[in-house]
Amino acid sequence: MKRILLIIGILFTSQPFAAITSFCANPTMTYQSGCTSTCSAIAASGNFTMSANSDGVCMGKATVKNLSIKKIELGRTEIGSESRCQIWKGDDITIDEVSGLGLSSKSPIVLSECMVGTTYDAIYFTFGRYEDLAGEAVFPDGSNKIVRTTSVFSAKDSSHTDLLNLASWRDLASADTTKAYTIPNTGSPAWIHKKISSNPSDVDLTSSLNVTMHMDRTKLNYSTYTNTTARPGYVCYQNPDGSGLDTNDCVANNNDGTYVTIMPSEYVTGLPLTLKEGDETLNIEYTTLKTDRGNNEHHGVRFLWRMDGSTLKYVGVQPAEAEGEYTQISISGVGPAEGL
Q: What is this structure's pTM?
């Protein structure tokens, strides 16, 4: 088809959304709404403070951050009437937020499985279960020591099949040295991090290398998304107090090394879309923020720290976006495969 030679279905780009992302002018180890605190900016400011036996987080610099897309479907958000139809499947698309390189697929987008006259208001993305992640940060206390991702728990930890049994794989306050993931004793599930060391440590890793860790996105999802009944087969986000249920902010584990997430129309330009006779293909552009802007403005990895008495120690790391960042997805060029 002529279309394959022109633009092959999917394009991933990264660009600096300066107007969207804000880094804190007075960064702290506590959450600040509307801006992002980096560990390097806290260290440079000289304003580091944490109380004894407390936990805190700050953003580090990602050197690897890759997540593969396995399948894309059009669908509906109506529960019980999702009408999902596959429009792309392949093994050659990886979102690389560090390099920011635009990528395309050898496989075109095809709408033949979708129904003419159906109005679709969501994209269902199937991602690979594991995200490759590596990064580093200076100690925010100004000691000039460095923390890095390490090999201690870097491997794929796929032995736990009952993801809803959080206690079987998630450690509380780093009490179990055999478990790879942890949250603070008083932290919310959103604080889940993969451990950098078996126990919290203040060892300087300046002379080490950033090791690529395999982050199990299904574990990260199931630790944060707690409602198991609103959308059958999915876990959906709901506040710990039972409020704020969002039946579109949901994920599903496929039990085959992949998981599904829903992107409803409020996040996708070009949706809702009603297919017409002769609609055979379309373009999807997936735009995300590149992870490093320099000058202490970076993101991609968030480090969890503990103030052990008067000693600052690193605990773990998680993939993270800057405050205000969001993925931009747009659909265009809906029509016949020939002549576009």
A: 0.89
Q: Which residues have a Cβ under 8 Å from the Cβ of 159 and sit 6 or more positions away?
A: none
Write the DSSP symbol of residue 190: G
Q: Count other C-beta atoms under 10 Å from residue 27's C-beta.
A: 25
Cis peptide before 264 (omega within 30 of 0): no
pLDDT of residue 242: 85
Angle, alpha carbons 327-58-53 (nearest 5°): 140
Q: Is residue 235 within 8 Å of 225, Cβ to Cβ?
A: yes
| DSSP class of 107 | S
**Domain definitions of the chain by residue range:** 2-335
Mapping DSSP onto H, E and C, the string for 56-71 reads: EEEEEEEEEEEEEEEE
Strand partners, 246: 237
State the pLDDT at residue 324: 64
Going 33 to 35 to 41 to 45, the CA torsion angle's sign is negative
275: three-class secondary structure by DSSP:
coil
pLDDT value, residue 1: 27
Q: Phi, psi at residue 11, to the nearest 5°? A: -130, 130
Element containing residue 45 per DSSP (H, E):
helix 39-45
* Euclidean distance between CA atoms 158 and 64, whole angstroms: 21
Q: What is the DSSP letter of 118?
A: P
Q: What b/e string do you get for 279-301 counting C-beta neighbours within 10 Å, with b at 16 or more? A: bbbbbbbbbbbbbbbeebbbbbb
Please give the average pLDDT of every successive group of 10 residues along the chain, which has 340 residues: 28 41 88 90 95 94 94 97 96 85 80 97 96 97 97 87 89 93 81 94 98 95 92 92 92 94 93 96 82 84 95 96 74 79
Residues 72, 331: Cα–Cα separation, whole Å: 13
Cβ contact 98:292 at 8 Å: yes
